[in-house]
Amino acid sequence: MRSRLLSNGLKWLASHRTQAVVNPSAGFASRVRTGDVPASFTAERERSLYNESRLIFLPLFSRAFSSETLVGENVETETTWEKKLEEEVLQHKYKKGEAIETLQTWAKEGKELNKAQLLRIIRKLRKFGKFKPALQVSEWMQKCRESELASADHAVHIDLIAKVYNVARAENYFTALPENARGAETHCALLHCYVRKRLIEKAEQQFKTMEELGFATNEHPYNEMMTLYMAIGQADKVLLKIKHMKERNVLPEKKTYNLWMSACASLYDDIGEVEKIMDEIKAGGENNVHWTAYNTLASMYINAGLVDKAEPAVKEIEKVLPQGDRDAYKSLITLYGALGNKEGVHRTWKSLKEVYSRPCVSYYISVLSSLVKVGDIGEAEKTFQEWESFNSGINCRLANILLDGYIKKGMLEKAENFHADIVEKNCNLNGRSWEILTEGYLECKQMSKAVASMKEALKKGKSEEWQLESENLTGILKHFEEQGNVEDAEDLWNFLDVLNV
Fold first, then answer.
1. Element (H or E) spanning 168, and its range?
2. CA 48, CA 166: separation in Å to the nearest integer?
3. Gene3D superfamilies from the entry (predicted)?
4. pLDDT for the residue numbered 98
5. What is the rounded distance in angstroms from the CA atom of residue 42 to the CA atom of residue 214?
6. pLDDT (tens digit per residue) in 417-459
7. Which end of the chain has the lower number of beta carbons within 10 A, N or C?
8. Are the C-beta atoms of 210 and 187 separated by less than 8 Å?
């Protein structure tokens, strides 16, 4: 429908174009005049829906190679100087080799850095996505503590190399390891690299190798393959892996069950198949049901429109909610937002802040999105101001969520004032920031402002490889067609040609 509407608008424009129009041979105009909507106008809304669903299903696809999985050492109690070292390593933005220099400085001061301390630093760096300094610390540990390294330590290193550089370098490191260091952990780490990059043939061959070597005796390699199959839309192969696990007496765990439930949900219209899996989990005892299983079930109920079933599942999450598990709090906030349960969002956010007085931005994004979804703009404003109060700059994603909330509530004037305020505060607005305003102007038929803000969106988006939602462009073109406004249509057309979007 979008392409047809755009095409019709263009046919109208073409019939009214003046002699001054340049030959439509290249760029945006030539592509659209054939009736094709260019890739740069792919619907932003589809992307936002994907991100929204990603938040709900986040626990399903948590990395098998998290710091907790790969770093299995008994962590010693931290001394004051150890905490200072960790803070110094964590807070700096290191260039090449600088993390190592920090460690060397501390070592010269006579402070011995044992393996457990280094592993703890690596784990925390990985947790916060600081993979480059984590790799530097791991490399330093390899040089200083080589004789103490286990297969699990090499597995961490393989994972970091793949993240910082590429899979080929991780493969080279793996191949260069002595035979006794190439255990189940390192093989599984390499498998994870293949899965992460969707290298299907290599992943399947690596899994086969692990089976031949007797390394596929726990759930981790199976989870990796099931994660891959879900990512490439081959859910039927997930069920085959579950069958193989049962035949080999490999016990499933929380992630296995989540992947299994997701596969069944995608293959069968009847959500009863998913409920059977939950019954199997419960058969092992209520204490065996992890919160992620309820999260998966609740998400599926919501997507199926079964709100009456989703609400009890969400309440079960609260019952088993592990204190201190931030992902659990965030998922619960998202689920309550999807259900339109304002009290649930407020209650969970309050509980989270009792444990973490200053949550990071991802949690503010989650709660702000949920508050906007349940229509609580007043609380959304307070939450945004709270973030501003202890952060020097404005986060553009947070600002866009609140801006979008104003527009959806029909509060255009408030949206304009808020937009002007964040521009004045030197917030680096992106294309989406201006597009949100465009949507508000279109809704209120303020076409000159809609065109102006859309032009700003396109200029910003050009450098960001951001995609404008095609409905906004077609909405403006349709208005020009209805009004017979050839002059403004020409102006917009020439702008698009010059920008070559």
1. helix 167-176
2. 29
3. Tetratricopeptide repeat domain
4. 64
5. 47
6. 999 998 888 777 888 999 999 999 999 989 999 999 988 888 8
7. N
8. yes
Q: Could you tell me which of 497, 498, 480 has the C-alpha nearest to residue 489?
A: 480
Relative orientation angle of helices 291-303 and 272-283, to the nearest 10 degrees: 170
Cα distances from 419 to residues 183, 370, 400, 427, in angstroms, run 55, 21, 9, 10
Report the 10 Å Cβ neighbour count for 24.
17
Give me the helices (H) in 232-355, please: 235-247, 254-267, 272-283, 291-303, 307-320, 326-339, 342-355
Q: Are 493 and 458 contacting, i.e. CB atoms less than 8 angstroms apart?
A: no
414: Cβ–Cβ under 8 A, 6 or more apart, which residues? 406
Rounded Cα distance, 403 and 407, in Å: 7
Query: Using a CB cutoff of 8 Å and minimum separation of 24, what contacts does 12-16 make?
Result: 12/481, 13/477, 13/480, 13/481, 13/486, 13/489, 13/490, 13/493, 16/484, 16/486, 16/489
CA pair distance 490, 254, nearest whole angstrom: 58
Helix axes 167-176, 151-164, angle to 10 degrees: 150
- Phi first, then psi, for residue 322 (nearest 5°) are -75, 125
* Distance from C-alpha of 214 to C-alpha of 182, rounded to nearest angstrom: 13
Alpha-carbon distance 437 to 423, whole Å?
13
3 state DSSP class of 270: coil
Q: What is the mean pLDDT of residues 286-306?
A: 88
What's the one-letter identity of residue 334? T
pLDDT tens per residue across span 190-243:
999 999 999 999 999 999 999 999 999 999 999 999 999 999 999 999 999 999
d(CA 491, CA 486): 9
- Tell me the average pLDDT across 379-388: 95
133-142, 224-233, 357-366, 394-403 — most confident range: 224-233
Diameter of the chain measured on Cα atoms: 82
Q: Are 182 and 151 in contact (CB under 8 A)?
A: yes
Which residues are within 8 A (CB) of 21 and not within 5 positions of it... i.e. 6 or more apart? 490, 493
b/e 33-69 (16+ beta carbons within 10 angstroms → b):
beeebbebbebbeeeeeeeeeebbbbbbeebbbebeb
* CA separation for the pair 212, 283 (Å, rounded): 33
- Helices 326-339, 361-373: axis angle to 10 degrees equals 20
* Tokens of residue 155, six digits: 């597995």
Structure tokens at 259: 């992947």
Neighbouring CB atoms inside 10 A of 18's CB total 8
